[in-house]
């Protein structure tokens, strides 16, 4: 049975308004394209507004490796009073902490200023192909099915929904072991006494992840002291430290490798907490994902009680909110022309066709208390090649963000939000440049990478000169 669809035409369609999609949409619009950004949910930002810090912007050495749209978002958060900035966790990371409530406003401001058309509550549900080209994406909204035609489509859906519908091959988790990183529900607490919390870590450093990057040149105790002097409640409690281990054994806490505490607002004395987990779950199975929600909420509530009862600094703290959605670390990895490899990441590989940089450690969360982590060689950064964005066999589709083309190990590093924003910026810029070229075939592979790199560099992206 044939179906009559409503029809719309745009230069660039971006599916998914998380870090990657926002980077793509803003960059494409700033470069002159008419851009539609659709998201299935009621809010912009994806994981960017869940309270987790933005990783991958600075290397373990403390060198900025992401600029452009990402830095503009931070500047807007700062203008609005919601930017805490880079924090050394004295483990191996420099994270960037922001207020997730302010980040929502900052994202909307930047999208509006760039002229991006935003469509929320809009689910990309299929594609219409024209040979090796994507003619358009079928977007389902309340009571309407729309065929959105676009010269270039950017899949930033996290799950690669568009690419899969278009028949692009993909992998999921560790196929051999049937393993996927666990899902997590983030939450926040206000009224936290940072000084007391940091003093506790200084006096009992065995409870925290500290001093993992050799380049710090500090032992565990010195790291705890430096963390204390930094004065910001960025603390990584470890599951095998006595505090968490005992709470897990006594049934006060779910089994987890970690409890990542990050400041979200200095004014509210608020932190976010990253610790809950449900493993062995394919998050593209909506029924199973939804059935994990009650368990995650119970874990949140237990953990808030544990923090108040057992962790110095939280005695007077009050629960202040759940993340807008269950956080998904890993589902599909779409296979593009180039697949980012384990060694590309681990050995900080640079390449001439780099259009973005990653710098986060290898970071595979396992179910329960397992966690596979490994710093990048020398605390440096690696390049994301342009071919990693080009969906195999399709002329005008790019894939960015969590559903990127990478091995599982490489993905565990490049999935973080600084890298997703940078990847998105590159894709959006490429899409807009192709439109300028008036190529009737709109073949992304015809775009010279040198020109793209020059444009990205001129617009603040960091592509050269990092360790
Ligand atoms: C618990 C947790 C902790 C993490 N910790 C950190 C951290 O500390 N620092 C860090 O930088 N990163 C962290 N990460 C990783 C990082 O947050 C994500 O990998 C990254 O945000 C992914 O960005 P994205 O834009 O690809 O996807 P998302 O942010 O997931 O956005 C995808 C968007 O696409 C929309 N969408 C999905 N399907 C469709 C469809 N079919 N049609 C329309 N819209 C659709 C969704 O509604 C969503 O808004 C963490 C992740 C989790 C889950």
Automatic annotation (TrEMBL):
Gene3D superfamilies in the cross-refs: FAD/NAD(P)-binding domain
Stored SUPFAM superfamilies: FAD/NAD(P)-binding domain (SSF51905)
GO molecular function, one term: metal ion binding
Keywords (A to Z) from UniProt: 4Fe-4S, Iron, Iron-sulfur, Metal-binding, Oxidoreductase
InterPro entries per UniProt: FAD/NAD-bd_sf, HdrA-like
Keyword Metal-binding belongs to the record: yes
PANTHER family (UniProt xref): COB--COM HETERODISULFIDE REDUCTASE IRON-SULFUR SUBUNIT A, FERREDOXIN:COB-COM HETERODISULFIDE REDUCTASE SUBUNIT A
Protein name as catalogued: FAD-dependent oxidoreductase
